[in-house]
Amino acid sequence: MKQLLRKIFNPRVDPINRILIYSKNIHSNLSYLQELQAKSSIFPVLKSNAYGHGLLQMTKILRKTNIPYIAIDSFPEYQIVKKYSDKKILLLWETNFKNYKKFDLSRTTFCVYNLETINYLAKLNKKIKIHLFLDTWMHREWVNQKELKNILEFLKDYPKLIVEWVMSHLHSADSLDHNSIQAQIDLFKKMYHLIIDYGHNPQWRHLWNSAWLFKIQDDFFNAYRPWLALYGYSPLSETDPYYKFTEKLKPALEIYSKITALHQLSKWDWVSYNHKRFAEKNTFVASIPFGYTEWLPRSASNKIYFRQNRAYFPQIGTICMNLCSIEVSNKSSILDNIELIWLAWKNSLYHLSKASDKIIYEILVWLDRNIRREII
């Protein structure tokens, strides 16, 4: 009866814009990363809507894996992971104090950056697992050496606050210069041993992000947090000698739209705003309802290609708020599928990133959350 009512009052529509997530590629990337750091545990980072792949979809994909934790950065994200997975949860960023009472403390570990938050958690008088986020010269919101001593002194009186983790973040892991990274590692170890001297025994020690896990083996660290690599994209430049280790990664995301308008242009006819592109010959132009609101960067105008029936066609004219134009063949029809992002190079996210002068991270997280995502 519930299913019948749902069909009547909340029918599932057929969307024009769709994002497909290939679960087999996510699992392949996960397995490969685990092979590279076989002695360490992996904590997939699903923050920012799982880098555009969809937090709900990625949570479901990872349900049957052996990962011990899923990392997210907000209470709304926590609610989704809690509902659709039985994995433990790491809250990377802090939240309003009153929200801490709403978490399942048996499943959640909190990253903490300051004594004020720790003091609040201590007043709850409950067994709470915390994660000291150390500042190793990135100088953002984390605990520096001086603050660490004050926090450790405070924790002496609150045994219910358990330091389960110690972590930091690399500031230039994708750089060819490794000297500054080694300085971060050395400082991390120094701060970690101070924590040990105060009687704590953290279970997890991790510093690696996607870039650095391809570059080094260090048995001191027993966990790492893959971000970009989990989704199949290399965090390293092609000039990096370690880039070759990223070539096994498999992108998992494809994006489709459909033709909603189709017309013929004569040579020299202009297309879209400000007349920045004209037809170089008599041709057919299609419009699709996918613009910079949905995610497509305006700066990529006239520089990218889409695919239809295995043939590539140039995007032409200025990309608009909710649509863009494509030069197509005379065989195209209304509601034909157009592949915006495919796994091949010419209309890959790598190409879009270069064409729009934006990093892959930006490109991914800007994907409109309202576009339907389907697990394949």
Characterise the protein shown here.
Helices cover 27% and strands 22% of the residues. It is of the alpha/beta class and 376 residues long. The protein has two domains: 213 residues, Alpha-Beta Barrel (TIM Barrel), CATH 3.20.20; 123 residues, Beta Barrel (Lyase, Ornithine Decarboxylase, Chain A, domain 1), CATH 2.40.37. Helix 4 runs parallel beside helix 5. The longest helix is centred in the middle third of the chain and has 19 residues. The protein is elongated. The model has no long low-confidence stretch (mean pLDDT 90).
CATH homologous superfamily placement of the largest domain? Alanine racemase
What is the overall pLDDT average?
90
Annotated CATH topology of the largest domain:
TIM Barrel
Structural category is alpha/beta
Note the beta-strand portion. Answer: 15-25%
User: Could you state the order of secondary-structure elements as H and E?
Assistant: HEHEHHEHEEHEHEHEHEEEEEEEEEEHHE
Give the N-to-C terminal Cα separation: 28 Å
Biggest sheet: strand arrangement: 2-9-8-7-6-5-4-3
Rg over CA atoms: 24 Å
Properties at a glance:
single chain, alpha/beta, TIM Barrel, Lyase, Ornithine Decarboxylase, Chain A, domain 1, 2 domains, eight-stranded parallel β-sheet, five-stranded antiparallel β-sheet, 11 helices, 19 strands
Chart the SSEs and their pairings.
Blueprint: H1 2-9, E1 18-21, H2 23-36, E2 41-42, H3 47-51, H4 55-61, E3 69-72, H5 75-84, E4 88-91, E5 108-112, H6 115-123, E6 128-133, H7 145-155, E7 161-167, H8 179-197, E8 204-208, H9 210-213, E9 223-224, E10 253-258, E11 261-265, E12 270-271, E13 277-278, E14 283-288, E15 305-308, E16 311-316, E17 324-328, E18 337-341, H10 349-356, H11 360-365, E19 372-375
Helix pairs in contact: 4-5
